[in-house]
Amino acid sequence: MKKTLKFGVLACAIALAGCSQSSNTTHVIAEQTSAAQAIQTYSANTFFDTTSFIGSSFSPSGEKILVSSDESGIYSLYEVDVKTGSKERLTNFEDSTYPVRYFPNDERVLFTKDSGGNERYHVYVREVDGSIKDLTPGAETRAGFAGFTKDGSQFFISSNQRDAKFMDLYRVDSETYKVSPVYQNELGLDVGAISPDGRFIALSKNNSNKDSDTYILDTYKKTLKPHLISQHDDPAQYTPETFSADGKYLYYSTDAKGEFSQMWRYELATGKHTPALEDEWDVTFIYFSNSGRYQVSGVNADASTKVSILDTLTGKQVAMPAIPNGNLHGVNFSSDEKTMAFYLNSDTSPSNLFVWQVGSNKAKQLTNTLSKDIDQYDLVESTIVRFKSFDALEIPGVLYKPKQANRNNKVPALVWVHGGPGGQSRTGYRAMQQHLVNHGYAIFAVNNRGSSGYGKTFFHLDDKKHGTDDLQDIVYGKKHLQSLEWVDADKIGIIGGSYGGFMTAAALAFEPEEFKVGINIFGVTNWVRTLNSIPPWWESFKKALYDEMGDPATDGERHRAISPLFHAKNITKPLMVIQGANDPRVLQVESDELVAAVKANGVPVEYVLFDDEGHGFTKKENRITASNAYLKFLDTYLK
């Protein structure tokens, strides 16, 4: 997601990757054979027999890779042997644990974990003997890892233990774990990057949802006063990304030069700014291998991430070996830079971990994450489709056509709405979507105005227009589905998570005749309450949030007007609501009240409450339960 915090913290979830398709494909779909393809359908249990992996940090020796995998039902840490692919489990908590990295000089590991989905993440160290220490204790503490010094003697963490609203920066001794304050954050700044020697800290400040600044803090100066390096007149985003391996340059992203974000670099010694990387889409990240020889960058190209790896010694792109179709992500190098780890993902294949001896002609696949009981042929590749909305604005979306569908076998369909606002539906494997498509439901993931990835003008078109103009994009996405000869025009529902859950409830409340059913997953239904009860650690981007959604002190009337809860009497179509009891963003009371209000209308309502989840799913068992519930609900009220 774009780094501009467009209430993006409400986005449900967790992965970016995929493969790009043609943007002019509707006519191709229409011309496909009229004979339904015979495929096997699979249960939710089978789809979620798929295993997810996160992380690709090499051990200092390069012999192991630190990952987190949900093969046990929740995300736990594992070490993967580079030669054999065998795994050893390192953690066994009731809550998911997520990898940070190995220590640079030994096999201790850092990881993060919250409690029951409350998003108060702590930073932990796992010692070589298996013992575990919480480096950031405190029931109300929220902390994060910020980087090691290049020699590995120290690392940095951010924590709100002093003030719940602000993340201060601390230095931790790698041997003794002694914690020393570095920067007391009184200005609402966010740590973006730390130079390899630990001297310079790059900080960012959100001034509005269109404007941010980048600062440099020299920790060798007694004043500890951040220095602004992003002087500009017109609103623009300046976001620190990383320092060069030699510490001479800070790389930062900015949309000041056009519609899309570019990478620039700032020379610390001279203060000179020069362009580093640009594309016809947003350049979303850049980082370097240990010595700086390899530069890894990514571009958000029409809802797919395209990764490039540059050999800075030769100035040429690294020639990769033959690998399966899909998109790279999670690229990492061993400390000696002789081995590269990466993941490969596509619409029909979950992310698999590979290792490659740089320069050799073959990469080794270490994982097989798709269930052995699923024939990949039965899964569906997406197409990128565009349509005109109510005001002739072109709206993109990701369309999944069931293999059973044709003009003689029309299928029901769902408009999928992403989280955010400011999120983006993207290509790549998603078990829940493939499960529904496999059972004969078309899915059209519409990237309504306000979505990231299509330029800053498009991104801001929904500012303070939520539930109105962006909702019309969703309605017109439904009309596009109705124009397809293989879709049953009378059987179209809406589904979405987080902000998409709000849009689902809003569609049923404000456009009650458009959709036959709605599935609201962790969705906001009362903006008045939500915007007055945001977690304290959102303080640094609260101004940007209010620029996006409106300040509850002055826009309460509009918030009430767009909140489905206050208009629930209009909901006449079957509704399903999914909620996590520990959700700090969308409080359970919102879903409780919506369910009660819609039931009072005599409308069928299914309510699935998870006592051990927050804002999204961390447990495989719950994902299976939810997916079974979606399918049963749709089979009952839509198909």
Features:
11 helices; single chain; 639 residues; globular; eight-stranded mixed beta sheet
Task: Chart the SSEs and their pairings.
Elements (H helix, E strand, L loop, with lengths): L25 H5 L13 H4 L5 E6 L5 E6 L6 E6 L5 E3 L7 E6 L6 E5 L8 E5 L5 E3 L8 E6 L5 E10 L2 E8 L5 E5 L6 E5 L5 E7 L5 E7 L8 E2 L9 E6 L5 E6 L7 E6 L5 E5 L4 E7 L5 E8 L2 E8 L4 E2 L9 E7 L5 E8 L2 E9 L5 E3 L17 E6 L5 E7 L10 E7 L13 H8 L3 E5 L9 H4 L9 H14 L4 E11 L1 H12 L7 E4 L5 H6 L9 H8 L6 H7 L12 E6 L7 H12 L5 E6 L9 H18 L2
Largest sheet: 8 strands, mixed
Strand order of the largest sheet: 29-30-32-31-33-34-35-36
Uncertain stretches? 1-35
Helix count from the secondary structure assignment: 11
Shape descriptor:
globular
For this entry, what is the oligomeric state of its chains? Answer: single chain
- Cα-atom radius of gyration: 24 Å
**Number of beta-strand segments:** 36
Termini separation (Å)? Answer: 33 Å
Beta percentage is 25-35%
What is the mean pLDDT?
92
Q: Structural class, from helix and strand content? A: alpha+beta
Share of helix, binned: 10-25%
Structure description:
- With 639 residues, the protein is of the alpha+beta class.
- The chain is 15% helix and 34% strand.
- The chain is built from eleven helices and 36 strands.
- An eight-stranded mixed β-sheet has the order 29-30-32-31-33-34-35-36, sandwiched between helices. Strands 1-2-3-4 form a four-stranded antiparallel β-sheet, with no helix packed on it.
- A hairpin with a 5-residue loop joins strand 29 (383-388) and strand 30.
- The radius of gyration is 24 Å and the shape is globular.
